[in-house]
Structure formats: structure tokens, C-alpha cells
Amino acid sequence: METLDQAPAILPYFSVVTKRTDSYWTSLTQTPEEARNENLKVWASTIQGVVKIADVKIRERQKVAGVITNIRIDPREGSGSIEATFVDGTGQMLAKWLGRQALQGITLGMGLIIEGTIGAGTTDEPIVLNPEYVLVPGPEHGVAAH
User: N or C terminus: which one in the chain shows less Cβ crowding within 10 Å?
Assistant: First the structure.
């Protein structure tokens, strides 16, 4: 049987246990979209030198990472383009490569690190034209260490 003298020895560990329990219950009550956004935020934070999409500054050269959620190919003769919408858990952004009808490796769910000058699209969504890019595994495929 514990005495009152032994009870204070447990108190320093109580906050650690309650934090873990709170985290567990929070993860169980999240919607799939909220859980995915959290995973994306954690994944993007592992990539050095990137800016969150929510924090990008228009007309500045920046490096952003996310996962491709939509691809659009416009195969016009001589002036086609490829657009990739990607998300990082804080927002979404559009990367557009002009004059291209194909782009090797760009697939849904793929991790994408882009670098270029950020602009504003017609819907105020950040857009970057002809960015430099690197494909990396997305959060479903492991941690990117780029």
C-alpha cells in the first residue's frame, strides 16, 4: 500500500502519460482529411529549406514540398502544358510546366519538391511556372530526407 510520501514520485510522469493519452484520443477522433493533413505537415517538415504553402510569398523565389493530388495535361499542338496541384497540409499550390506534353515521373501521390518564383493564379492560388523539381517518396512511402 502506498503512503502519501510515495505519491509525489509518480507526479512527474503523470503529465507525460496524459499527453500521450490526449494525442491518442485526438488521433482517433480526427477525420481522414485532418489526419492526412497532419501527416503531410510532418512529412514536409522533414525536408530541409522548404516553406509551407500557407507561408509562401508572392514574387519571391522559394522552395516548397508537397504531394501531387491532381494532374492536368493540355496537349495543344506546339504549346502544351502540364499542371500538377500539390498539397502540404497547410494549403495547395499549382506547378505548371509550359511547352511540355509529357513529364517523366509526375504521378498522383508522388512527393514533389519545387523551386521557383511564386505567382498568384486567377483564383489567388499560388502558382509557379516552369519550376525546378525533384520527385521524392510521399508520406505514404516513407520519410523524404532531401
Answer: N
